[in-house]
Amino acid sequence: AQTVTQSQPEMSVQEAETVTLSCTYDTSESNYYLFWYKQPPSRQMILVIRQEAYKQQNATENRFSVNFQKAAKSFSLKISDSQLGDTAMYFCAFMKQGGDDKIIFGKGTRLHILP
Amino acid sequence: DAGVTQSPTHLIKTRGQQVTLRCSPISGHKSVSWYQQVLGQGPQFIFQYYEKEERGRGNFPDRFSARQFPNYSSELNVNALLLGDSALYLCASSLAKWDIGQYFGPGTRLTVT
Asked: How much is the pLDDT for B1?
């Protein structure tokens, strides 16, 4: 069975700083996808970034980038130049390729961006 | 295009009652998945339907059931509600493997008293 672990329940950083959220996962699958989601108080689950396991290059979306270490089963999210609007719950998630499209989520990290 | 829509937004039910939650996928999307998110936790997979057939089921009791209609909309039914069923229920739709996980609805907040 696959598991996703986020070891930081809560973090706070000053606006404009860079912050890194940690995530580790456990799987015996070779082909899979990894995700980072943002869930603001509005509850809408927003996909921030997605990584295919077969791609060695780390995914990047504007101020958001990941550090994907497949051998270590680590998938951290870096937010550069953090903004007040980045305040939210962040979930790391895993989905194996093939079979049902079940996404397995971690417990989340609550991120506070301080003015 | 409209995103994934869910109704109702909020719902309050009493223990033992039954509830039906609805989800309309993005136009053209044939896959719908349901997730339960208890307060303070990450979402947990309940069901996936593709082309009106159940394709995946999470570790939930038989009190939970779902179906998908010819227009690809979906309903999630929960019978004999328990206090522990209080949660945010999320629906996600997708067109193909490459966009799975991209489109979530705003959720239905169910409170069981």
From this structure: 62
